Amino acid sequence: MSQLTMLILELFTQIALLTFGTTAGADVETRDASPSANVLGDSAEAFQGYWMGTDPLNGSDHRRDFVTSDPTTVSMVGRDSFILICGTDQGAATFEDGVASGQNLATDNFLIKCFNTGTEILLKARYELLETNVMIETLTTQEGYFVMSSTFYRVSG
């Protein structure tokens, strides 16, 4: 990772400590939503749709569009009104290999691309459905350090 990326992740870590009282992925409770987990029935379809949330760190809005590419795999494209690492809204987040298991969805390939600078950062994402139309997104570094957690609400789908 570049020094700028590491600096931004350190900033996220400090903000997370102040906001949530924890910084390390080891301190954050995680459920088994690993890509190798067994898929239960049509659990991938439970995530399908358009979801919106608010970034607890900077107040920007998050938008995620989830689609099932087959009965066990979920793809996502997302935008935020402000992406800190990009310094603007000119970027997107994507993954194509999300694996659903019960009320959980996981990918190790949550890719943020900044269109204005060319910066790319690869994170892990875990999603947990709390209700039919409410879910939590938790992002960590590839090493497991907590980046952020946001609540999303299904708008359609």
Q: Give the integer mean of the pLDDT values.
A: 80
Instruction: Indicate the structural class.
Output: mainly beta
State the end-to-end CA separation: 36 Å
Oligomer: single chain
| Radius of gyration from CA coordinates | 15 Å
Q: Assign a percent range to the helix content.
A: 10-25%
Strand order of the largest sheet: 1-2-3-4-5-6-7-8
Largest sheet: 8 strands, antiparallel, barrel
Order of helices and strands: HEEEEEEEE
**Residue fraction in strands:** over 45%
Counting DSSP E segments of at least 2 residues, the number of strands comes to: 8
Shape: globular
Enumerate the spans where pLDDT stays under 50 for 5 or more consecutive residues. Answer: 16-41
List the total number of helices: 1
Labels describing this entry:
single chain, 157 residues, mainly beta, 1 helix, 8 strands
